[in-house]
Amino acid sequence: MSQMFTLADAIPYRETPTPAFAVVQSAIARRPDVQAAEAQLRAADFARQAASAERLPSLAVNADYGATGVNPSNDAHGTFTVAGSVQFPIFRSGRIRADIDQADAVLAQRRAEFDDLKGRAEQEARNALLDLATSAQQIRVADSNRTLAASTLEQARDRFRSGVTDTIEVVQAQEVVASAESDYITALFGWNLARVSLAKAMGQTEQGITQMLEGR
Length: 216
Known about the structure:
By secondary structure, this protein is mainly α.
């Protein structure tokens, strides 16, 4: 006879709906790689603005205050100077144009990298959702087969007790039950793995593993 086994602890399974829009938004907003690419894009945009600002005139103001006289305590008089200047970058147009072109090239590269990472994050999140839905369906099928196998085993035992059949049918039914239990455990493992993959795609790997272990 095949060996019967019983799980010491019930493996948690609770299917919860996960809106695709929320998953995609979380993947874009919370993944560190997407956040890093977005920060680089902002830095490149600021550099582009700084390069363009080189064309603007600059204003400088200098001021000085002091005291003059033979005796600082009695004959000193306050003196001060104020000077202002305005500078126009007339002869730097070529260099400024080169700086702007360089900043434009870096900005275009950072924008392309950011868009690529966003698209990749969205694709990974949608793939993880599909894997989770598929694994949930596999669990439902495995659970149905497990229930059917248990019912078949009970019927085989009833027929054996009634003397209608021999032990061969009971042994075969027990093997089917063991196989159904194994399939269910495999499907449950795949479902939990899909949950971790989804959490990783959303930038919540640690939280996803914690929820899986706690059965939430």
